User: Fold these one by one.
Assistant:
Number 1:
Amino acid sequence: MRYTLKLNGTFNLEDTRNFEAYLQGFLSRNYLGFVDRDMTKVCYVDEETGSKNITDKIPTHSLIYIDVPDRENAFNELLEIIDEIGVPLGSVLQNEEVTIPVGTLSQIEVNYTFDTAKNIKKKVDKLEDKLECDYLDELCVVSHSYIFGKEVRYFLYVVDVDISLPIIEAFLENQKEITNMDIKTSRSGYGIAHRYFSVLRRRYKVENIKLWESVKDIYQGASEEDIDALLKEYPNIPGSLIDLLKIIDGTWDTNHEKGLVNLPVFTTVEAEIPLNLLSAKQMIINKELAKKPIINRIANMGVEFDKFISNDLENIHVLPLAYSEPEYDSCELYIDFHPSNEGDYGQIIVYSQDDNSYCTASKSLDEFLLDMLNNDFYDMFQKITKNEKFDVDDSEEEYDDLEEAAESIFWEFAKTTYKDIKEFNKDLKKYMKSMEEAITIAELKEIVLEEREIIIAYEAWIEEVSQLKENEVLELEDGETLLEEEKEDGLWQVTILARLKSEAKKGFALGELMMKAHNQMANKELFDYVHFEGFDYLGQETEVKGLVERAEGLPVFEVNLGS
């Protein structure tokens, strides 16, 4: 079955090709067909279409043709994938029989002028990269700029206008080189909660498909009646919570029409325990019940609390948001409507049995959801997987996440050494784009290895053994040494083992692993073999002289290089 995706927005041909590649990755992973790249068209306001860019015009939309298997639920699966990717307001998916709106991203158009046209492309790229990577992060899904002399038209497609707009305005107003700033918005009607759940669902399909399959046909959104009842109890409830409950009305042993739903949807960096969302009814039922343990713990048990939480126990006013399941240490998440003078109305507070304390996790629910997205849900999925409740067979544990993620990476190793992961991720993203492939910063932040320490093996040419770094040794047979006469053109061809350690306690993110592997090779000669072709798991190494000596061993991965 052939479908046409009308991708609304200012996507030129290069941007459209990047989107195609990203979409094809999702389709392939779900065995859901392919994009017919020969048919893709970029369209302009006067209805001109074609497979080439028109440099003096801004596109209005693109047409992408998708061939999907003729099987039950294939169309719904395709809709779900497009929702998880995120496309701009006004986009539609259609065939001869149906036309379905699929746009969930809002558009923010910023028009501004630079003081000079000199080096303007470089200045625009630097300014907008900083805004998107350092300030907006997961709020901005995609963006494009068009330059006409000194004037710039900058289009950002964001998950939530209300959160993004103040950030964009504050950032650009501080840029002395630009003037005549004008901002327009087109709201999709969707916000941070919708994006949060879409990405959460996508991550479950990768990290714990068995658990997701157990609830995907059961969960439902809250009724208008239940939402109205909740608003009577909490008139100032955040809009993002209402939006989230309308999507999924509770996951804490919650009764839905078709059965019980138990599904962690939050965690906190403070407690590191998966947390399940209460339903609207459960929030109301637990309104008064939630106060008693808080008062008892603080007044009678000496539980500590930070300066942002009020010590006025008689006037506690909290909304119970999420609780841990019995399999974990007790952990509770609340929205606080009576903070201290130093706190924020609507702040998120967390109780952790392990730390025996209450502390503030975020200034608001919106900030909390965004923080979870920006940090790839912290280690929530690793905690879930380790819980015996979900019946994960450790004997089958492989390194599929790493190997599958690496298959989609295009990269060329060079002599540059990186110290900043953000700079590396930006360069990797740009290189992928130059190869007409796409990857997001969020994907580069995904944890692909739970281990904090591993060994990588790679081939290179060296002139002196002193080129080895402190964390490297040569792979040699017992008693073998390098002899001068074995050099070719003054170089030895060798296999090098390097011990890498992640900076994060939850393990290696894809971007960090790629950067650390790149830095190991930066001072070696690779000749034409500079193109990354994936990681292969070689097994566990328990003893390598000068590198490893531990009974449990370390996993070893070969870095495959091609010309």
Note: The longest helix spans residues 280-300.
Number 2:
Amino acid sequence: MKSRLVRSLLSGNTLLALLGGATALLAAEYVYLAFDTLTFDDNAACGSDAQIGCPSGGWTTALLAVLFGIVAIASFSILAARLRTPRDGVGAGWPHSRWTRLTAGVLGAALAYSPGYSAFLELRGPVPVQPMAASWSVTANDPPSVGTSAAWPNGSTVVRVRQDGFAAAYRTADGTQAWSATAPERTMVCAAADQPAAGIGLLGYQRTGGTCTTVVAIDLTTGHTLWQHEDPSANWSDIDTIALTDGLAVLRTPAGVQALDPRTGQPRWLHPSDSGCAPTAVAADANQVAAVEYCADPKNDELGRAALVTLAPQDGTQRWQSALPTETPLDTVGFVSVDPLVLAVDEHDTRGTHALLSFTADGKSLATIPTTAPSTVIATLPSTDSHGLGSAAVYPVVVAGNTVICEAATPDDDVAHDLVGYSRTDGHQLWARQLNGDLAGLTETDGGPMAIEYFEVPPGKGGTVKYYAETERVDPVTGAASTQTVYTKAAESGQGWFGAVGGRYVLVNASGTATAGLPAVLAFPVR
């Protein structure tokens, strides 16, 4: 009895049933998958550069479905013929072994399903991701040469300020406009505080043909101008020239660091600079005001020294000063973080300091992270024409605990495709990871650091270029990604603004021109 069962299982008929069941299942599976691939909705987010790419391998899958079908038909035809023609008792045993053949066919189908689907995924490429649709969006109506100068959250609204001085607040619940305001005639926005405070935003204005000599405070609840401060000797058009925190507006002036009352504009205190010195960048939070001061060499204007100083926000008293490792003028300097203190320095000297510098709370130098290397270039600060985009701005660098997370590119590529994490305490590289798309930048949210990538997909069935954004949370310790979400019509190259406001994620594009086909502001459900 036992030997008869073994012979039955190993017989050609059983193997034919096994083969027939497997190929029949594969044929049916590949017919469905080929149809699904070849009729894929081109309106979904896909593209050759994205992991969420358009499906491929459709015709190969269809051909394999036909071949599997032929093999299945042939296997079952041969099996049926053999069972109708008894040979050496094989056919005669059919009534007693039909359950063996049936079981073999079902087993073959079951065994073939998983590897068949895995093989299909290899043929097809990345699995498509349907992008999240916007809950609402603001129609792109910007003039061609005008983009976003500032974007600030305020309660359940988000405020966008254009470079031409037009400002509007949008309710995050439905996108309706709460208020709008315009700058004086022939006035452009030339500076913006990185973050709002107590419902106030700080802007710099300049008239056509003039310099950035005016600072105004905007009530973000009404859009009204609270006060205006003029200084003909100042120029606030650079990065980190004005800052705002609860109870204090801080300005970089030729005389020193000036503090004003944020609601009235009345002077609070002035920290004067030494003769031949002037602040080049300022930043502030509730606990301290920080500034970089540069002192030119009186005998050689191509040489000079720079220092980082911190001041008490109550009265401007200097707490400490730390010399920076520079000897020539600073082409670019700005604050990546105030608490903890991380500074980006780009010295004029080609062989000078081009690095991120971190400090302890009492001013001791911690780490130097070079931003240029033979194979990697690290972006440190947003460009001057797209800075001041709010407290959740998309920037090239964020600090998360003891990790400095940077976007990186190769020297011959002006778009970053990599993330690199460095230790804030000693500067060594912790991890590096390549991204799916082009990196727009990084932002710090309540849930941790988040990378914003963008995809520009060539025209498909609709005949127009499509834009998508993908966000992914980044583990600062390992660099691993989680909670990836794709958003439709929501991204472009360049820094923008992204953050959670009023129970939604809000994205403000750096440009919202009609020619780009992108809304200026979009809101999405929080997942």
Note: Residues 2-124 form one domain.
Number 3:
Amino acid sequence: MSLSVIPRVGLRRQWRRGGSPRPEVNSRGLGLGVTMEPGPSVLEVLLDAAPEWRDAEGLSRPKATGSYEALCGLWRPAEAEGGGLCFTGRCRDAGRFCRRTVAAPAGEFTDFVWETTEHLQTSSNSGRLLAVSNHNDLGIYEFHVQDGICDVTNTHSCSEEALRKLVENKNLSLSSSLTMKILSFKSSTSFILLDNCTLLHLSWLEGASEADILDGFKLLLPLEAAERIADGQICQEMLFLLDSAGWIYICDTVDGKQLGKVNLALCRPGVFEEAGDPCDLTCLSRLELSPDLDVAVAVNPFNCAICVSLNNFFREHPDHLQRTSEGSNDESLRAPAGIDEDDLASSVYSDKVLNLPFQTDRSWTARLGAFYNKTKVPLAEKFLTRFSTPWYHNLSSRNSNVASCYTSSCKSNTSGQKGDVNSQESKWHRILQLQGFKESMSIETVSVSGFSVLFTLVAPDSGALTIAFWDLETEEVTYHHIDGHSLPVEGGGEDELCLFLTDAGLSMVVFGFSQEDLLNRLMIYGKAGIVDSLCHRNNWNRCSIPIHALEAGLENRQLDTVDFFPEEQRNLLFYAPAGFFKAGNSGAALTSWAQLKNVEEIKPALDLLCSAIKEHDSETQSRQFSEQLLTLTMTFSTNKCRNF
């Protein structure tokens, strides 16, 4: 089954649409009185039972690509020294999966990041990732799946010694015990954090086997803060660093200047942090942000999470934000030293400084990708309807285009509305103490959106999982527990899914969806074959397609959906109402009643099909589709008449 259709369903946005009831909640507040039994709001779905998904021995920290067509994890075989990477890919042509493991050149890999691009991915059968080993060696690995065979090639490499030489060319120094973290890998360029205080911008050009440095500089952080940096993340060309002492620093990825900071100690004013306090905010270990930069979530080793609305925080504490005027002319347009002004790297640098909507890639695929990215902007509906501009609107001129997109799309929704900083809507922080099914559980993955947070807690001894869904609007938490050995999968994209690997295969957990809701959305956004295979794999009864799904299939010219509708109606069984036989009705009467009921049920669909045939027949370019619809409708009607 192809997973690329799943993100389009909008599994984590349904509660925001207002079209379905809120799920029943198992717990709320600080997680007290937790009931681990899943309610009707939690649905566990087996997506694929291929052997490659079921065998997860030696695998850890698996991550999926943005299209969810491939997966890679850190791999360490039992009773063996060293470790490598384990790739699992799906070949669309062959319709099957394949697996390939790659050993590290020396030691073992400690982390990796899939490459993202600004345009749509041209092929789901290939992809690249940047990996780092425990010897601080970097390498790019490109995988390609064809005819059911997975091939992995090491295209670029950069040893620690070569990296130190690149840094020395920028007149920078590194410690003898170098620490390294990959922050991003996008369009053949990557940001690397060295010693928690040096930001390196590398370029991996095609045809070159080694990395080339674009820029590098020291970050302007407070004294001794670099020793306490626990995590970091780059979003929209801004670097967010988590200080374990309770600070979040926001730095510019162009020059390293500090743009703002968040003091998490303000969440608990006047509270003295005691040793052993589970909500201790002075030993934070992980930071995650939503794609729209509205929500930041930090966690500590005691499974306590703090959620901060950055927009509300900077409204109440504007002194924590460094304001800069738009269109500032202080930044030099001169290309970095060592780069020719006619070189492409110089153009990229000028593009960042001026924030011009110029793209060096003028291909049709890149243009489609740009339009696609624009359609993804309004995902933060909560953010748009409450505030006219995001908090980073005036930080730097290069972010003005992004901010203006948010502003223009929400002006109509925010007219006449004024935010009350004392209201519940303007509450800028929330603290949650997570409760795992077992005391030994610890947080493994965190996924943040503008309105919810997903946590997965793992028991190190048994591999059992507890998944927590935190609704930031109601502050309610829903828990779901999975017995047996399970492995959470980190997603790749804005619509991250709650995926995990078990002995049964690749599965998914969705909150706030019933089985019918999920199948209806898959029918509209995907294909009828996906729905059919999903029902078969999970032993679900094949449900009849609603009339609105048929409408969507006709509108999108999805013949498989249109054809699936009569197939379902053909096998649909009707049962006599209560008291039918007590009234003295015979079997013949039941047959007549069932036939009449059948005709009543399919009449709206037949009317819809006839209207679509007439509409498309009047258009020359749609006449072929009209003929196909007519054939399907006539075949279905003929079979029904024969049955009658």
Note: DSSP finds 14 helices and 29 strands in the chain.
